[in-house]
Design brief:
The chain has about 425 residues and is of the alpha/beta class. The protein is built from 14 helices and 21 strands. The protein is globular and about 80 Å long. The structure holds cytidine-5'-triphosphate.
Length: about 425
């Protein structure tokens, strides 16, 4: 059974390596967030890192001794400090990681504390590396070669963002924002040694699978300035896309209007209304292995769109004629061959299960993720989610699993775990 505790960070021991990059200041923010979430963070700084951030800041924020010099007499606890520390940790994260540190770890050059720890890690402890440097250094063949070596050795590389760099140039090489780093850390903590069997099964089953995901609301235009929409934030669908990509799948996200940004390696199509979402999703469906329709598609749209702006002086009472939008999930149900088709259902607690079951059968879905609109921490606009998953065990036996409240990322892991049970 899956661990349902949504505060996966709680009590976890994380070694945070900081190297000499201008992005090192973000590592301080990362320490603060991880500590707030309940993790114990052990900062280790390379000598160059100390030119960018001070050990005092890292120590204050983490409330731990900061490791600098590996021969410092104060850290020689237990005989072999590096071996002791890696054996008691759940994960090591290096953010930001410079080209030079990448090269040293890839080649086992243990001339500082950080590289020594990274080299001493055993293979069951995740090593997450977030490279951050100028584009030309990132794209340099030696950096790319070292990244490949590290990846082949089992390290998880968090791809850098594209954007403005401290040099003033624009390109690949920015350290991703804190929420993205937390996404990776949370997912890999979950997939770390405590749930190793589940993690291995998920990664094996989802690697290179093509997954299509819809997310967010749709806006159906009334006139050129007004629309019919809903409160969906898109967070659940974005999380499914991010976690799917972390698990090695090839993800295509079709997103309605949201304020979210997709930082992961996910092909993203942006749409506004249900007709555009319908077109892309129906077109892409034959090529995919799994489709997860988490978007809160508007059920109705204006029969006619009015050009310009409806003026209130001329309109004392306004009646809009609405028609149903095309049901994307139902259409995919009719096109389905070997794909796994997953829908969402937002229901009130009374009759929720019955309605979700009806939706699953009438729309031809293999699985429904049920949220309750009258339950706290479930459905729209929440950080966490409380889900019940329905699927068919066989033609006439239905599986129903109700989970505790979890972060949306952990809900995603659980949803993929249930999907992987349906994959042949
Ligand atoms: N859905 C869809 N296209 C629509 C409406 C809904 O693909 N035009 C999908 C949603 O993405 C979700 C599932 O259908 O996966 C169920 O959506 P929900 O709004 O709960 O159900 P509806 O069928 O719209 O019925 P109702 O709103 O009456 O409960």
């Amino acid at each position: 059974m899956i661990n349902n505790k949504y505060s996966i960070f709680n009590g976890k021991n994380i070694i945070l390596g900081i190297t000499g990059s201008i992005a090192a200041y973000k590592a301080l923010l990362l320490i603060r967030e991880l500590v707030k979430l309940g993790a114990n963070v052990f900062p280790v700084l390379t000598p160059s890192a100390t030119h960018f951030v001070t050990p005092l800041s890292a120590g204050n924020l983490s409330k731990q001794n900061v490791i600098l010099d590996m021969f410092d007499i104060n850290i020689q606890f237990g005989g072999a400090w590096h071996i002791n520390l890696v054996h008691s940790c759940d994960m090591m994260v290096i953010a930001p990681c410079t080209a030079s540190t990448l090269g040293k770890i890839a080649n086992g050059i243990c001339d500082n504390s950080l590289v020594t720890l990274a080299t001493a890690l055993t293979s069951d402890i995740p090593l997450l590396i977030a490279p951050a440097m100028d584009t030309s250094m990132y794209l340099n063949p030696s950096t790319q070669k070292n990244l490949t070596i590290l990846q082949n050795n089992g390290a998880i590389i968090i791809p850098p963002d594209k954007g403005e760099l401290s040099s003033g140039l624009v390109g690949e090489g920015r350290l991703p924002e804190i929420p993205v780093l937390l996404d990776y850390i949370e997912t890999y903590l979950f997939l770390s040694k405590t749930e190793q069997n589940l993690a291995n099964k998920l990664k094996t089953k989802l690697r290179n699978k093509k997954i299509l995901i819809t997310a967010g609301p749709t806006y159906e235009k009334i006139d050129d300035v007004r629309f019919i929409g809903n409160y969906s934030s898109g967070r659940m669908g974005y999380s499914l896309a991010a976690v799917g990509s972390i698990l090695g799948a090839d993800v295509h996200l079709v997103s309605g209007p949201t304020s979210l940004k997709m930082h992961h390696n996910v092909e993203t199509s942006y749409v506004e209304n249900s007709d555009d979402m319908y077109e892309i999703v129906v077109d892409s469906f034959p090529e995919v292995d799994i489709a997860i329709l988490s978007a809160a598609v508007a059920d109705f749209k204006p029969f006619e769109k009015i050009k310009g702006k409806i003026k209130k002086e001329k309109t004392e009472k306004l009646t809009l004629e609405l028609i149903q939008t095309k049901d994307i999930l139902k259409k995919l149900g009719t096109l389905k061959k070997n794909q796994i088709l997953v829908g969402f259902a937002l229901e009130e607690e009374d009759n929720g299960l019955k309605n979700a079951w009806r939706k699953m059968t009438s729309k031809g879905a293999d699985m429904i993720v049920l949220n309750f609109l009258d339950k706290q921490e479930s459905g729209f606009q929440t950080e966490n989610n409380t889900i019940t998953i329905l699927n068919f065990q066989s033609d006439d036996v239905m599986n129903i699993n109700t989970y505790e409240t979890m972060s949306k990322n952990l809900c995603s892991v659980v949803i993929y775990s249930e999907i992987s049970n349906l994959l042949k």
